[in-house]
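Protocol step 4 of 6: structure prediction from sequence.
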Amino acid sequence: MRLGPIDFIALEFPGNRFKGEILPDLLELVDKEIIRVIDLVIITKVQGQVTVRELNELDPAHIEVFNPLKAEVNQMITWADIDTIADQLADNSTAGLLLIENL
């Protein structure tokens, strides 16, 4: 399968306060087939401790929030990508890592 062009996006949410404000805009891009979410990873850093979760590892309530994005979980976001973002992530913050295909 041929993909591309592909962009890697990291969105930081200070204070671990992800309220979902960006989801309607992302959903609009997905619905209009402007982008396709190829992979999605959530990183949380609390008191220096980093937790990494793929979309399918989130609790059911969060999975339901992200379901409309039709995000795939294919592990294309590498541990090197995750480590790079985690190192730069402010303490007590959450980051959403997205790999998107521009359609």
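Step 5 (inspection) to follow. Strands lie at 6-14, 35-46, 49-54, 93-102.
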